[in-house]
Amino acid sequence: MAVTYKDYYKTLGVSKTATQDEIHRAYRKLARKYHPDLNKGAGSEDKFKEVNEAYEVLKDPEKRQKYDQVGRQWQQGDFFQGAPGADYAFSFGQRPGDRQESFFWSSGEEGFSDFFEALFGKGFRHSPGGARAEQSFSMKRQGADHEAVLRISLEEAFRGGTKTITLQSASPDARGAVSPQERRYDVKIPPGILPGQKIRLSGQGGKGTGGGAAGDLYLKIEIEPHPRFRLEGRDLYMDLPVTPWEAALGTTLTLSALSGPVTLKVPAGTQSGQKLRLRGKGMPRPKGTPGDLYAVVQIKTPRSLSAKEKALFEELKAVSTFNPRT
Rounded to whole angstroms, how far apart are CA atoms 207 and 169? Predict the structure, then answer.
């Protein structure tokens, strides 16, 4: 029976002078493209086997040298027979430094072509222990990363700490039935975390396949609205109601900030809408200077006046030359 010549360089799409790195990159690209777990198209399994056979030869300097010698004479009708009875096991996996995915393939009764077996023998049909290997396709792949929203109070974001949360997920059991599951996590919240930032829980995401590591779970932070403070970047803002006389004459006030009681001096002649800054009293920063706290002045007038208050305001009206509209 005639044995058909296999052009392994053409199969991998590389030149006959390709380096080992070029051969490896070409193989990984084609293995991903035709892997039966990723490509369900007709012929993908056969193409995947052809790619693996070509790589098995070209990745090995000794096999490649023997193949190159045969290639120069094959078209002249010479026939080459490999040593029968050899016992080999093989896999196509990742090299040192590669991460996350690699491809594995083992041959069954029709794993390699007649051309390959003519060169290298038929021993590749058996595993090292002598047991018959079944043809299988699997991918070693890291599990998917998952994401969930974690809503916390402004105080929790400011101070940090540990928060116990419960998340629900749906996953199939051994029979394929999907059922909800609850998992509890003790989440460490760093002081000064901001909305949109994420906390990573390593290995708590989707399960890996083919022995791959589990993915990670990312908790995206949302901060609940606060009745007194507004967050802008790392700065905090609060409204500060003052009386007309406090604004005109100036005063010193004690305020409750997230960091604790603070003293604020209101200068004489303070205007409504003016921002008074308390340096470093905003959100903490993991490395560096914290944000600031701004008190936004709102001048409030009494809704009702006593007889004496009204008289004093009438007296002020009579003696004052202040006109806010000029």
Answer: 13
Inform me whether the pLDDT recorded for 49 exceeds 60. Answer: yes
Q: What percent of the chain has pLDDT over 90?
A: 51
Q: Render pLDDT for 54-109 as a digit per residue (tens, 0 to 9).
A: 998 899 888 888 888 776 555 444 444 433 333 322 333 333 333 333 343 333 33
Question: For residues 22 and 25, what is the distance between their CA atoms, to the nearest angstrom?
Answer: 5
Residues of the chain with CATH 2.60.260.20: 146-223, 229-319
User: Does CATH place domain 8-141 in 1.10.287.110?
Assistant: yes
Report whether 274 contacts 247 (CB < 8 A): no
Assess contact for 116 and 110: CB atoms under 8 A. Answer: no
pTM for the model stands at 0.57
Whether the CB-CB separation of 154 and 226 falls below 8 Å is answered with yes
Helix 44-58 / helix 20-34 crossing angle, nearest 10 deg: 160
Range 146-223: architecture per CATH? Sandwich (2.60)
Q: For residues 161 and 191, what is the distance between their CA atoms, to the nearest angstrom?
A: 7
